[in-house]
Design a protein that fits this description.
about 35% helix, globular, about 20% strand, 7 strands, Rossmann fold, binds S-adenosylmethionine
């Protein structure tokens, strides 16, 4: 079956960039911010050892270069085989797998960490509970599940989503909803952190933003829980 994202195999980054051009910042800035947040979360929740990681809905793998040195083994999963073909060209050493969008093709407890970055808003709401149950299932006890999403409370996020042609089907969900899905799937020590409130590369601005991580206004949020 042809997937929406198959047609964005070669221009995914350009389409994202055109939806955020008004910020004056490159797509890579937003990717780096996510990687920084994930690094801090890994250290705090999983300790110094590099985790094995499954990135669900990884698309063309544009986040994966930012994970260099952070993980020990990386797998990427997506419903778009064309996106994964591009990801394989761009990133060697990553295990990319296509699937039907329902049951993750991995055994229970296969990973230390599972992420879904800007994916859930493309998954039909009726599938959210199953999707979260699958994220928890493939992570070992004591491991971490992390969902990064657009924050619907941020007006600039809404503008970027409205401008992004592949977000036509997007159903944004707030951090509270993701945390409830996590609780229902049996995760514990559930938390959330908001970021990209002040999109700027200036060091001082980054520090201010760190201090405002609990304020639910950042352009994106990470919701996380322990298995
Ligand atoms: C906006 S892209 C995000 C790609 C990548 N995570 C990133 O941040 O660059 C959303 C991705 O989710 C994938 N996707 C949509 N529904 C999915 C599902 N049920 N399971 C896994 N991936 C899905 C799409 O094919 C697409 O590659």
């Amino acid at each position: 079956m042809s997937e929406l994202f198959d047609s964005y195999r070669s221009n995914y980054r350009e389409v994202v960039q055109s939806s955020i051009d008004f910020s004056g910042l490159p797509h890579s800035f937003f990717m780096r911010a996510k990687a920084d947040l994930l690094r801090e979360l890994i250290t705090r929740r999983l300790g110094p050892r590099k985790p094995s990681m499954l990135d669900i809905g990884c698309g063309v793998g544009s986040f994966h270069p930012f994970l260099k040195g952070m993980v020990d083994g990386l797998s990427g999963l997506d419903v778009s085989s064309a996106s994964l073909a591009q990801a394989r060209v761009d990133n060697c050493g990553v295990d990319y797998r296509a699937f039907d969008g329902r049951n993750f093709p991995f055994d229970d407890a296969s990973f230390d960490l599972a992420t879904a970055i800007c994916v859930l808003h493309h998954v039909p709401p009726a599938e959210w509970v199953h999707f979260m149950n699958e994220m928890r299932r493939v992570v070992r006890r004591g491991g971490l599940v992390c969902v990064i999403e657009h924050n619907p409370l941020n007006p600039l996020t809404r503008l970027a989503v409205a401008r992004c042609e592949f977000d036509r089907d997007a159903i944004l969900l707030g951090a509270g909803k993701v945390q409830k899905l996590m609780a229902a799937s049996g995760l514990h020590e559930i938390g959330a952190r908001f970021f990209l409130l002040l999109p700027s590369e200036a060091k001082l601005v980054r520090r201010v933003e760190d201090a405002l991580g609990n304020v639910p206004l950042g352009a994106q949020y990470a919701a996380f829980g322990t298995v």
